[in-house]
Amino acid sequence: MNQSIGRTCWAIAEGYIPPYSNGPEPQFISHETVCILNAGVKDAHVEITIYYSDKDPVGPYLVTVPAQRTKHIRFNNLTDPEPIPHDTDFASVITSDVPIVVQHTRLDSRQAENALLSTMAFPGN
Question: Which InterPro entries match (predicted)?
Answer without folding.
Answer: ASRT, TM1070-like_sf
